[in-house]
Design a protein that fits this description.
Pathway: Amine and polyamine biosynthesis; ectoine biosynthesis; L-ectoine from L-aspartate 4-semialdehyde: step 1/3. By secondary structure, this protein is α/β, with parallel strands linked by helices. Helices cover 39% and strands 15% of the residues. The chain has a domain at 94-312: Type I PLP-dependent aspartate aminotransferase-like (Major domain) (Aspartate Aminotransferase, domain 2), CATH 3.40.640.10. The chain is globular.
Length: 427
């Protein structure tokens, strides 16, 4: 059956090369392949499945909606499903946090949300430049690629990517250097060559970029700088929002209020495509139909997203994520100290990374883990970071099992590496 994909599917396919199994079903933290083998999922659809595979309460809400012939597609017409989601999101997420935003539903993917945010920022300010950060990743369409740092992905555009500038992310220049000194100096100096930007777009944790974590102080200063210079702040919470860092929004711990927020991935709670742009009311200056998308009315996703908000009716999930985060951090730190002292552990909530100086090691560990029934990906510009993205609802014993597998995979990868010179000598 694999020959079907090799014969007919484009060479662009990627994850199937790292995880070559034919998957047939999934539940909770586990995926099952056609041979009945179970895999613990520390990948979760690149952050799409924060609540695990096929969570019962969300699934039942979806099935009930479909069985009563609920609207599936509506463009931006009014539907009960959309109304219910907007009302519930306001009640459960925005109002308790003192946030006031208008809702824009663009196309159903994260890059659609980013494109809408960039377009609106330029329209509102009348300025063209948008500032992104080193190692950022915001999507694969042209506007999102222009504020993405990865050179390989940028090159795929095939055209110049302009009207943006890249400045150093927190920690990019090493410990003890506040990279915002550089950015603020550029804004203040008429001779810097940087035009006053319309917006700054930032991920509080650069997931694809290598699990690079911005400090609370750095984020707070970035917010102050943008406010002082009349620059809009866009927070891309597509991968690390919806509870991935513990709080629903990843910027909550910093106590900042972005001008625009982009959400997607786990927003639907069930793996259905859904994207949302949250806009401060005074910035909602769109003309009717000025930005649209055929699938901005994906009602089944509104239904599952509304059901997923049950996880946020109290603070229990955030508390559980914080407790599991402590477990993961301690265990990864111990594993690294024992087996790879030069590696670096970093993360927040339930997104963690181990960065290795050997840029091949993370991929070898991922492969060794897959053989042992654990799906875990790599990140960073050279795939030098082993990246953990377990579901937020994973049971503690499952989490511990996955960490055991990572340790075993690391030992195997290192033993293969250490055996190489002997093998070459024998040859």
């Amino acid at each position: 059956m694999m020959n079907t994909f090799e014969q007919y599917e484009s060479e662009v396919r990627g994850y199937c090369r790292s995880f070559p199994a034919m998957f047939t079903s999934a539940k909770g933290a586990w995926m099952i392949d056609a041979e009945g083998r179970r895999y613990l999922d520390f990948f979760c659809g690149a952050g799409v499945l924060n609540y695990g595979h096929n969570p019962d309460k969300i699934k039942q809400a979806l099935l009930a909606y479909l069985m009563r012939d609920g609207i599936t597609h509506s463009l931006d017409m009014y539907t009960e499903a959309k109304q219910a989601f907007i009302a519930r999101f306001n009640d459960v997420i925005l109002q308790p946090r003192g946030l006031r935003y208008k809702f824009q539903f663009p196309g159903p993917t994260g890059t659609n949300a980013v494109e809408a945010a960039l377009k609106l920022a330029r329209k509102v300010t009348g300025r063209e430049q948008v500032v992104g950060f080193t190692n950022a990743f915001h999507g694969m369409t042209l506007g999102a690629l222009a504020v993405t740092g990865n050179g390989f992905k940028r090159a795929g555009a095939g055209v110049p990517l302009g009207h943006t500038a890249s400045v150093p992310f927190d920690g990019y220049l090493g410990e003890g250097t506040d990279t915002l000194d550089y950015f603020e100096a550029l804004l203040k100096d008429e001779g810097s060559g940087m035009d006053k930007p319309a917006a700054v777009i930032v991920e509080t944790v650069q997931a694809e970029g290598g699990v690079n974590v911005a400090s609370v102080e750095w984020l707070q200063r970035l917010r102050r700088i943008t406010e002082e210079h009349g620059v809009l702040l866009i927070v891309d919470d597509i991968q690390v929002g919806c509870g991935r860092t513990g709080a629903f929004f990843s910027f909550e711990d910093a106590g900042i209020v972005p001008d625009i927020v982009t959400l997607s991935k786990s927003l639907s709670g069930y793996g259905l495509p859904l994207a949302l742009v949250l806009i401060k009311p005074e910035l909602d200056q769109w003309a009717p139909g000025e930005h649209n998308g055929t699938f901005r009315g994906h009602n089944p996703a509104f239904v599952t997203a509304t059901a997923a908000l049950r996880f946020w009716q109290d603070g229990l999930l955030a508390e559980d994520v914080a407790r599991k985060a402590g477990l993961v951090e301690k265990r990864l730190t111990d594993i690294v100290a024992k087996h790879a002292p030069g590696a670096r552990v970093r993360g927040r909530g339930l997104i963690w990374g181990i960065e290795f100086d050997d840029t091949q090691l993370a991929a070898r560990i991922s492969q060794a883990c897959f053989k042992r029934g654990l799906i875990i990906e790599t990140a960073g510009i050279d795939d030098q970071v082993l990246k953990l993205l377990p579901s937020l609802t994973i049971a503690e014993e499952e989490l511990r099992h996955g960490l055991d597998v990572i340790e075993a995979g690391l030992r195997e990868a290192l033993s293969v590496d250490n055996a190489s010179p002997a093998i070459e000598a024998a040859a």
